[in-house]
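Human: Here is a favour to ask of a fellow structure person. Comparing notes only helps if you start from a blank page. Give me a protein, with the fold worked out from its sequence. Please set it down just below, with no commentary around it:

Assistant:
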Amino acid sequence: MEEYIREPCPWRIVDDCGGAFTMGAIGGGIFQAIKGFRNAPTGVKYRFRGSLNAIRSRAPQIGGSFAVWGGLFSTIDCGLVRIRGKEDPWNSISSGALTGAILASRSGPTTMVGSAIMGGVLLALIEGVGILLTRYTSGQFQNVPPQIMDDPTQLPPKDSPTAGFGSYSQYQ
């Protein structure tokens, strides 16, 4: 499956960790900006300052939390790829469940099980949507005829559905 062709495993961990940090910092920054603006005293100057202070104090922490989750998820995913010898949606689902359980381990076994179920269900939903989108988009291109040859004299008629989608050489 083309969707599973990604970075090789040791580099994938660093890549996913950095991407998760960036996503958490940006999303957390937006959320904290709104929260800081709403909780600040009245006045444009105070609200702007409150928004910036909230971003500065909380966005890096949220980004770090996302980075820990992303790094642990990728590490478990790479381990499962190594153990099972293949990359498929079950690795991601299992990695999500194990990541949820490990991150909740300090709260006791009941919380671990709940977090594992939530992590597995969340990743199953994400993988399911990804598979559905892949099938939907691949179905759009099954009946498209092959593209035009390099010879501009062999162009299709003007009313053809592929008219205008020739090769690069016809525009030279």
Notes: Confidence is low (pLDDT under 50) at residues 167-172.
